[in-house]
Amino acid sequence: MTDTAPDWETTPLGSYRAVRASLTTGRPAAVATVTNVDGSAYRRPGAKLVVSATGDSTGAVTAGCLEDSVADIAAGVVESGDPRTERFDLTNDAEGVWGMGLGCNGVIDLLVEPVDESFRPAVEELDAKRAVTLLTVVASTDPTVSVGDRTTLTEDDDHVATERPGLPSAVVDALGDAVADARTADRSTTVTVDTDAGTVDVFVDVLTPAPDLLVFGRQRDVAPVARLGREAGFRVRVVTGRGGQADTDRFPDAHEVVPTRAPDIASVVDAPEHTYALLMSHNFVDDRVALESLLTTDVPYIGLMGPRKRFEEMREEFAEEGTSLTTADLDRIATPVGLDIGGDHPTQIALSAVAEALAVHNGRSGGRLTDSSGPIHGRPSRE
Amino acid sequence: MTDTAPDWETTPLGSYRAVRASLTTGRPAAVATVTNVDGSAYRRPGAKLVVSATGDSTGAVTAGCLEDSVADIAAGVVESGDPRTERFDLTNDAEGVWGMGLGCNGVIDLLVEPVDESFRPAVEELDAKRAVTLLTVVASTDPTVSVGDRTTLTEDDDHVATERPGLPSAVVDALGDAVADARTADRSTTVTVDTDAGTVDVFVDVLTPAPDLLVFGRQRDVAPVARLGREAGFRVRVVTGRGGQADTDRFPDAHEVVPTRAPDIASVVDAPEHTYALLMSHNFVDDRVALESLLTTDVPYIGLMGPRKRFEEMREEFAEEGTSLTTADLDRIATPVGLDIGGDHPTQIALSAVAEALAVHNGRSGGRLTDSSGPIHGRPSRE
Questions:
Q1: Backbone phi, then psi, for A193, in 5-degree steps?
Q2: B219–A339: do the CB atoms touch at under 8 Å?
Q3: Most trustworthy range by pLDDT among A149-153, B240-244, B305-309
Q4: φ, ψ at A29 (rounded to 5°)
Q5: pLDDT tens digit string along B9-29?
Q6: Which of residues 70-99 of B touch A (CB under 8 A)?
Q7: CA–CA dist B145, B149 (Å, integer)
Q8: For B348-367, what is each residue's pLDDT tens digit?
Q9: Is the pLDDT confidence value at B374 over 60?
Q10: Do B109 and B193 belong to one domain?
Q11: What's residue A5's pLDDT?
Q12: Nearest-CB residue to A220 (from B63, B308, B340)
C-alpha cells in the first residue's frame, strides 16, 4: 500500500512514517525541519522534509523552491551524523517585496539532523496516538549545550532523552510556559532561553498524532472518501460488515479495512478523541446502529450521510427506545454531512465530507477565508 | 492523459467526454440517465452512466448498487438502438425505511439510450462552453410521440432535432416555464405535458459546460491543485510562463498546460464566465500583473494565494498607478484563498482552494451543512 499523493505533498503522517521506516529498517535518513520563517511562508515552522540516504524525499519545506538544495545538505548530514542548522535567504530585494513571498522569497531557518534514536520516543508516542513535544537546540552560546541536543516531552510531561544529550533541566523548566502555549495553539516555535553561561535557542516542536478517519460503508462512494481522506492526512480505516481480501482490494487507499458489524463499531475505535467517523453504509438500520454504538465513545465527529430527515427518523427511533440524545451528542453529529460547496458527484461529495472532518479536527468552521479575515470589502476606497 | 479518478467517480465532464468519444470514434455506447427518484437518492436526476459496447462504464447513477444491472441493460440498448426506460424499485420494506435510502433503496427511474446523432448538438454546444437543455420523452400515451424523441434547446432557445424525431412544438411551448425554472435552478427534472391525444412525460435535462480552473504558477504545489481540481470536475488549465513539454510532464493531471506570460493571461481565458482562476506563482510581481490582467475579464473568481497583507500591498501599488479596484473587483478576489478548514500541508491547501472554487461555482458559502439546514440543535428535547 503506497501513499496516493506524491511524496512532496505528504502530510505529517507521511513524514512520521518515513522517520519510523528509517528507525525500523536501519536505513539512514535525515530530517529537515523549518524552525523559523521571516515574512510569510508557504510552510510553517514544524514542516518537515525527510531525505533517505538514497536521495528519496518525503515532505516539503517550501512550495518547491528549496527542496533540491535541502536534499544535498541532508545527504551531508546522513554522512556526518551531525545535526546542523541552515538559513536560506531568498529575499528578492530587486522586486521590493521583502517578506511578501510564500516560501520562494523571505528567510527560512532549517534544522537538518540525522534520524537517530533521539526520534524513537516520539515515534512510539505517536504510534500510541499520544501527542509529544520535541525540544531541540538550534543555536547556543552556552558551551555546555550543542545544536541537536534534545529532550522529548510526553503528554504527561515525562522528560526523555535518548542517544543525544538532553537539555539542562533549568532550560526545560524555563520553557514551561512556552511549551504550554505551543501545545495549546498546536504551533511549533523557536524560543530563546538565557542560561548561566549564555543563551540557547530551542525549537519547540509540537507533534500530534494523525487523526483517524473511520468510514463505515462498502459501496463505491467509499473509495473517493478513502482516497481524499488519506491525501488530507487522515489515517483511513474503512469498516465493512464483510471485510476480508475483497474489501481490502476494493479500497486500496485505506490504511486498514476492518471487518466489524454495525453494533460493534465502538470496539474498533482505539483512539476516540482522534477519530472522525463517517457513516455511509446507505443502509438506514446499519447507520442507525453504528451511530448508537459510536455515541458511547468520545469521538468528536460523526458525519452521517443522507438528508436531515433521515436523521430525524433515526432520532424518533431512539426516542421510542427511550434513548435521548444529549446536546453534546447532537453537536457531534454532522448531517447533512460536509461543507456546503454544491455538486452531487461522488468526488465532490467526498471532497465536502473530508473537508468538514478536517475543519472539525482543526477547530474551524468552514466558510470562506476571504470573508472572515478582516476588512477589505468594507473598507472605504482610497481614491 | 487519463482521468485520475476511477471512472465510476467521474463528474459531468467525464460523462460528456465519454459521449463525445463515442460520437467521434463511432464506437457504440449507451447512456443511462436518472430521470426521477422517489425518496432521497445518492444521485440526482441528470446523473449519468455511459457504457461502451465493450462494457467499460463511466459515471454513476447510484452509490454503486445498480451499476452492474444498468450496464447489462445498456448493452441491450446498444444492440437494439432503441431508447427505453427502466424503473428500479429498491424499496426495502422489511426495514421499514421506505424513502430513507440513498440510492440503494427507494425508487429510481432511468432513461437508457444509444449514443446517436441526437447528442451531437449538445456536445457541440458544451464544447463551445454554452449551456444546453435536452428535452427527451420518457413516457407517452400520445401515439404521435415516442420514448426517446428529443429536441435540444440552445442558450438562445433555438430548437434542434437530429436523427430522432423532435418534440411537437406545442409540447416544447408548454414546457417553457418548466425549462426556465430548471435552468435557473440548474436542476434536471421530469415534467408531464398534456397533448390533444394523451400525456407526455419529458425529461428536461439541463447541461452546463464544465467550469475551467485556470491555475497560474509552476511550483510543486500546483500539482495537487491540478489533481484535485480535475477530480472535482473542473477542466484544469495550468498557465506557466515557460510551458513546453517540461511543464506538461510536471502537471500530468492538467487537461492543458498553457505557456503565457503574466501580463497576457487574460488572452488565454476563452470562457470568462465559466473560469475560476487561482494565482499561485509565489512571485509577487507576477501574481500582481496576472491579477491586473484577469480583472479586465469577466471571470467570477480570482483566488490569490498568500496572506491578506500581500494583497493589500498589491492594492497599494494599483492605487499608486492610479488604478482603483471597484467593489465588484474586490468581490471576485478571494484572499486568503480557500475555505477555512485548517492545515497547512500542500494537499490540504489544495483541498481548501479547490473546495472554494467549487463553492463559488455553485453559489454556495462553504460553511457546514449541518449548521445551515434547519433546527436540530436548537430544538427542545423531546424527553
A1: -125, 135
A2: no
A3: A149-153
A4: -155, 165
A5: 778 888 888 999 999 999 999
A6: 95, 97
A7: 7
A8: 999 999 999 999 999 999 99
A9: no
A10: no
A11: 46
A12: B63
pLDDT for A225 equals 97
**B209 close contact with A: CB closer than 8 A:** no
A253 min Cα distance to partner chain B (Å): 12
CA nearest to B286 within chain A: A95
* CB-count burial class (<10 Å; 0-12, 13-18, 19+) for A121: buried
Matching residue, cell 515557460:
B242
Supply the CATH number for residue A283's domain.
Answer: 3.40.50.720
Gap from A312 CA to chain B (nearest CA, Å): 8
**For residues B16-44, average pLDDT:** 89
Residues in B touching A348 (Cβ below 8 Å): 11, 232-233, 358
Mean residue pLDDT across chain A: 88
The structural domain count of chain A equals: 3
Half-sphere exposure in the Cβ direction for B279 (13 Å, CA): 32
Question: How close A179 gets to chain B, by Cα (Å)?
Answer: 20
Domain termination residue (choose one: A175, A190, A210) = A210
Are B193 and B239 found together in one domain? no
- List, in sequence order, every residue forming a beta bridge with A191; answer none if it has no partner: A202
A12-63: pLDDT as tens digits? 888 888 999 999 999 999 999 999 988 666 788 999 999 988 888 888 888 7
Q: Is the pLDDT of residue A283 over 80?
A: yes
| Residues A133, A84 share a domain | no
Sheet holding A333-334, edge to edge: A256-259, A235-240, A212-216, A275-279, A301-304, A333-334
Is A344 found in the same domain as A228?
yes
B321 neighbourhood in chain A, CB within 8 Å? none
Among the partner residues B5, B42, B367, nearest to A340 by beta-carbon distance: B367
Q: How far is A293 from chain B (nearest CA, A)?
A: 19
Per-range mean pLDDT, top range of A101-115, B36-50, B212-226 = B212-226
Would residue B164 count as lying in a domain?
A: yes
A152 CA: distance to closest CA in chain B (Å): 24
Contact: B369, A340; criterion CB under 8 Å: yes
In terms of residue numbers, what domain contains A312?
212-361
Helix (H) or strand (E) holding B36: strand B29-38
Asked if residue B237 and residue B342 are part of one domain, the reply reads yes
Which of A193, A210, A227 is the C-terminal boundary of a domain? A210
Q: Read off the C-alpha cell for B70.
A: 444498468
Q: Which residues pair with A157 in a beta bridge?
A: none
Average pLDDT over residues B106-112: 90
Residue A378 lies in a domain: no
Confirm if A314 and A302 have CB atoms less than 8 A apart: no
pLDDT of B4 over the 80 cut: no
- Identify the closest residue of chain B to A99 by CA–CA distance: B310
- Can you tell me the distance from the alpha carbon of A231 to that of A8, in angstroms, rounded to the nearest whole number? 12
- Claim to verify: residue B97 and residue B143 sit in the same structural domain: no
ipTM for the complex shown: 0.87
* A–B CB contacts, 8 A cutoff, strictly below: 310
**Helices B222-231, B346-361: inter-axial angle, 10-degree rounding:** 40
Please tell me the distance from the alpha carbon of residue A160 to that of residue A154, in angstroms, as a whole number.
8
Same-domain check for residues B93 and B135: no
Q: What is the mean pLDDT of residues B216-221?
A: 90
B380 in a domain, yes or no?
Answer: no
- B224 with A282: Cβ contact below 8 A: no
Cβ A319–B5 below 8 Å, yes or no?
Answer: no
Looking at the fold, whether A200 and A240 belong to one and the same domain comes out as no
Dihedral through CA B336, CA B342, CA B345, CA B347, nearest 10? Answer: -80
Q: 129-168 in B: which are within 8 Å (CB) of A?
A: none
For chain B, say whether A22 makes contact (Cβ under 8 Å).
no
Confidence of residue B92 (pLDDT cuts 50, 70, 90): low
Q: Give the nearest chain A residue to B348 (CA atoms).
A: A232
